[in-house]
Design a protein that fits this description.
- This protein is α+β, with helices and mostly antiparallel strands and about 60 residues long.
- About 30% of the residues lie in helices and about 30% in strands.
- A four-stranded antiparallel β-sheet has the order 1-2-3-4.
- The protein is globular and about 30 Å long.
């Protein structure tokens, strides 16, 4: 995980065969992922994993 600026982070998440990148806006809770599932559904397990990690690590609650 690394900070892009004061409100956004990016994280590499290992998938089954590939590493995907999640960008998360900490202020709005909006997130983007490079995996195919995100493009089909607009949400994915990689985003859930990053939000869970950030929530536990930084104490931020997402709605």
């Amino acid at each position: 995980m690394r900070w892009i600026d004061d409100n956004r982070i990016t994280a590499a998440v290992k998938g089954e065969n590939k590493t995907y990148f999640v960008t998360l806006n900490l202020r709005s809770g909006k997130a983007w992922c490079t995996c195919p599932g995100y493009y089909f559904r607009g949400y994915c397990k990689h985003i859930i994993a990053v939000k869970t990690y950030v929530s536990r690590r930084l104490g931020i609650t997402f709605t």
